[in-house]
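Justification of computing resources. Each target in the renewal requires a structure prediction run like the one illustrated here; the chain below, 178 residues long, is used simply to show the kind of job we budget for.
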Amino acid sequence: MLDALEIMETLYSNGQPTPLDHVRRIVVFVVNSMSSPKTKWDQSESPPGTLQILMKSSGVPIDHYSYEATELLRDNEAQWASMDRLRRSPAFTASKDPDVATDVRTPDATIYAIDVSFNRLTDKAERDYLNELPISFSLPAEAVDRLRAAGATIINESPEFQRLLKDLGAKGRGRAAA
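Resulting structure tokens:
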């Protein structure tokens, strides 16, 4: 997604048309499906084995990459919004300097980065339950139902989702499909 946005921005800044020039809103659901099961390492006299440590630590680079990618997406969102405000300002519209016009040329789209992570749940018991689930392609039906319900709750309570609904002129709270 970041690469697509960068290509779109580069083409746009160079005055080249893109297939997304007509798009005014870009909604990105950032889904972090990482679970963080508790360990009892601190309650044992024996240290964890090599395999246990390897399994636990293997998620660290992915977590850091996911965090950085999400922050880059938010940076794009802020930059495009800032350039849009500049383009609409009286000082800019009065300026005839072509270099200034080029400097603030970004796609005329609003990015909505909606974070869907377990840590967004306010229900501690549900958050703990979901964090204890194994990462698997096969889960019990109850776990799947609870995951879907949690996703809908997280999306509905997301400030970015609420901003999207407001910008769309939606009435009241939205309802994400579970």
